[in-house]
Design brief:
168 residues; alpha/beta; 5-stranded mixed β-sheet; 3-stranded antiparallel β-sheet; 4 helices
Length: 168
C-alpha cells in the first residue's frame, strides 16, 4: 500500500520538541459506504470533531482482522468489498508517537447495527453519523484548525483519506 502523506507537528500548527525515539502504533481505518453512498464518521462529541472508524491493531492481529473488529465496535457494522486506499504516517512529537494508519474503502454488509464502544470511547461521546462524501469532507475541513492536539492530527489525516477516496 502506498504512503499518501506524512503528518508532523508543523502541519497542524504545533511545535513540541522532537523526541529521540518514537513509540510505534499501527492502526486500521475504513471509509465505509452504505447503500445510499453515504460514509460513516464518528462524531467525538466531547471535543466536537469527527473521525473515521478504526483504531489500533492489537498484538496477534493482522490489518484486516483489526479493521473488521474496529468497524464492528465503533459503528456496529460488518463490511465487505474491502479495497486498499493508502497509508498516512503521523509523527506526534508531544506524545512521542509514530502512528501508521492503513486505510481502506469498504461497503456496508447487511444492516447498520449498534456500536459496542469501550469506556474511553463512551467517555469521549462517540456517535456514528452517516453523510455523503462531500459533506464529510466539508465537515472535516471545518475542523482542521481546532485546538485539541490529537484531534488536529486525526482531522487532517482523515480529511486526506476522504479526499483520496473522492479520486476513486
Amino acid at each position: 500500500m502506498e504512503v499518501i502523506k506524512i503528518i508532523r507537528d508543523a502541519d497542524v500548527g504545533a511545535n513540541f520538541p522532537t523526541p529521540f525515539i518514537y513509540r510505534k502504533r499501527e492502526a486500521s481505518r475504513a471509509i465505509v459506504f452504505d447503500k445510499e453512498s453515504k460514509v460513516a464518521l464518528l462524531h467525538v462529541t466531547k471535543n466536537n470533531y469527527h473521525k473515521l472508524p478504526g483504531g489500533g491493531i492489537e498484538a496477534g492481529e493482522d490489518i484486516s482482522t483489526a479493521l473488521d473488529r474496529e468497524v464492528l465496535e465503533e459503528i456496529g457494522c460488518s463490511i465487505g468489498n474491502v479495497r486498499e486506499l493508502g497509508i498516512i504516517e503521523e509523527y506526534r512529537d508531544k506524545f512521542e508517537l509514530h502512528q501508521i494508519s492503513y486505510c481502506f474503502l469498504a461497503d456496508l454488509v447487511g444492516e447498520k447495527g449498534v456500536p459496542n464502544l469501550d469506556e474511553g470511547e463512551l467517555a469521549d461521546g462517540f456517535e456514528p453519523v452517516w453523510m455523503n462524501l462531500e459533506d464529510a469532507i466539508s465537515t472535516l475541513e471545518g475542523e482542521v484548525g481546532m485546538a485539541h492536539y490529537g484531534a488536529k492530527f486525526m482531522c487532517l489525516r482523515d480529511l486526506t483519506f476522504l479526499k483520496e477516496a473522492r479520486k476513486k
